[in-house]
Amino acid sequence: MSSGQTEDPVRTSLVPRSLAMTQVSCFYCNANDSRIESIYWLFGLKACPTHTQAAIRDCNAYLHEEKMVKIEDALRHPVLGRFLISLLKLPNGFPVIRTSGEVQPGWTLDRGFRLHNEKFIIYHDGEWSIPAILISPDANTENNLMRCTPIANFKLPHIYEQIKNDLPIDFLKLLDDAVFCLLEGIYVNEFEEVEQIRGYKGQEVHQNIPQAENVLYEGRIVQVIRAPASAAAAVSQAQAQDDPTEPSCETK
Question: What is the pTM of this model?
Fold first, then answer.
């Protein structure tokens, strides 16, 4: 759409995409005064002041579809915020179950304060999980451990008993309410609006990189390109011949 053509931003919707090597102008109307509305580093939309709210709506609708919630959005939510803040206020952090099965204390909510380090509540392996971080005692951020831990784990007796004295008395109900909000979706209104626009064929279907998808990598959401099944099988076979030892799932 040309910058001189008028249209109703409410009836225009775009699909978030990789921002690498894209135009600097507004994706909606080509206006030059655009800014980035990002979901995570180099992924989102570019929009001018006229289309900023449309870009926010479209990014939130994408998050709803992908079952992701930005941590900062969750902290502002009346229910999710109370749940997360109760974990942030724990004086000694909370225990996390490691891949090995070890229950390790001292973890805390990872808010991703560093630049380009966006954090999300995600639906992973059939469970809603929050990002957690274990700060290295040597203060070297390279040695920090990051993972996503299922919200439901906080109800396990051997987890809950360690932290219950520092939690609100209604924490277990608050946990259930938080999961309900996640299941319903905090971005559901934006998603339903975009669905209506799709019904009127008002959404541009922008082809992303073929076979690109969001994955969880070392506690972060990133986009990767999935190799075709035949190619992946060939790579796996070659790796097995080179080194038959199965690698560990634990990462820093």
Answer: 0.77
